[in-house]
Structure prediction request, 64 residues.
Amino acid sequence: MYRFQIVGNGTYSPFPGVLANLTYQKGPPARFTLKDRAQLTYTFDEEGKLLTWTNAVGNNFHYV
Prediction:
């Protein structure tokens, strides 16, 4: 589990020890994007549902 603090303008600051970035893209539809230290990227909708997973070389899964 990653924890972040809202900074504003769609940006979030990770809690100490969290090696990931979280950004918010206004919609519609609005999306959150999480990128971790392994360069894995997760995209979520506003309700927290995982939409896509992408690895460092661009392989991805799309969830319905």
Remarks:
- The chain has one domain: 4-62.
- Strands lie at 4-8, 11-14, 20-25, 31-36, 41-44, 50-54, 60-62.
